[in-house]
Amino acid sequence: MFADKKLISFYLDTGKKAEALQTVRALRTRDADDYALLRLEATILTDIGKTDEAVALIKSLIGKKTSVGKDTAVERQNGDGIVTVASPMADDFTNYIFISSLYTQAKRDKEAVEAINQAYSSAQTSERKEIAKLMLATAQQTSGDLQGAETTLREILKQSPKNPIALNNLGYFLAERGEKLEEALKLIEQAVESNPTNPSYLDSLGWAYFKLGKLVEAEKYLKNALQFDNTSSTIHEHLGDVYHKQGKFDFAKSAWRKALELSSDADETNRIKTKLSNSVSK
């Protein structure tokens, strides 16, 4: 199994997606309950444009339960001591979250939002409902429903005023849109205060300062973010934007090239290529 999984990784790394899919399916005939393999199959299917088939694969798990022996945590128990539990494969909340990620991967944003709403409806704890709300805001932002994303995040902050993810995301969304920049900065500062080494929060803080035209502070926090995560294409791209605004064109191109090297999103890749192309004459 270990060798087969290494082979799958090799196929994916070399762009041989059909071979990877074939190997995953062969493994699943031997272990149909391997949830990681099932998700990998769905991910590959989405990657090759078969999103509906991928979603159907995960949807087939919705509502299922697994019968196990007496020593397992009980959800329901009959008179014979047999219990029925929600296994990882049969966790509706998790499956709807994953379905949303498949739709996001396929850039089918409306359906991603719908799947997140289904995850919220199936959530049985306040923590899971909050997770779903956070993901809903991101899906709304991606789909272009900017007001919806802001409303969702403000609802979360009404219930949990110190939620660092909601603070950061609302601040970043506002900064990205160039709106309410002073409020955006304060929101992100609260997130950073709760976790000073989080590279995403530091990136957001740097980006808010950039939008405010405070380039020294922007450079400082973006460089700080890279100390904790040097593999983020977003942070490198943001730092390139700061350098370009400062007139440090060689530094900007170097940062953008690094961002391009790390980027895996087509839209992001095209955006960075455009920046590099437009900076050639600088």
In short:
This protein is mainly alpha-helical and 282 residues long. It has helices at residues 2-13, 17-30, 35-47, 51-59, 92-105, 109-122, 126-143, 146-159, 164-177, 181-194, 199-211, 215-228, 233-246, 249-262, 266-278; strands spanning 66-68, 76-77, 83-85.
What is the topology?
Layout: H1 2-13, H2 17-30, H3 35-47, H4 51-59, E1 66-68, E2 76-77, E3 83-85, H5 92-105, H6 109-122, H7 126-143, H8 146-159, H9 164-177, H10 181-194, H11 199-211, H12 215-228, H13 233-246, H14 249-262, H15 266-278
Antiparallel strand pairs: 1-3, 2-3
Helix pairs in contact: 1-2, 2-3, 3-4, 3-5, 4-5, 5-6, 6-7, 7-8, 8-9, 9-10, 9-11, 10-11, 11-12, 11-13, 12-13, 13-14, 14-15
Descriptive overview:
- The protein is mostly helical.
- The chain has a domain at 230-282: Tetratricopeptide repeat domain (Serine Threonine Protein Phosphatase 5, Tetratricopeptide repeat), CATH 1.25.40.
- It is 72% helix and 3% strand.
- It has helices at residues 2-13, 17-30, 35-47, 51-59, 92-105, 109-122, 126-143, 146-159, 164-177, 181-194, 199-211, 215-228, 233-246, 249-262, 266-278; strands at residues 66-68, 76-77, 83-85.
- The protein has a 3-stranded antiparallel beta sheet with strand order 1-3-2, with no helix packed on it.
- A hairpin with a 5-residue loop joins strand 2 and strand 3.
- Helix 6 runs antiparallel to helix 7, helix 11 runs antiparallel to helix 12 and helix 12 runs antiparallel to helix 13.
- The longest helix is centred in the middle third of the chain and has 18 residues, at 126-143.
- It is globular and about 60 Å long.
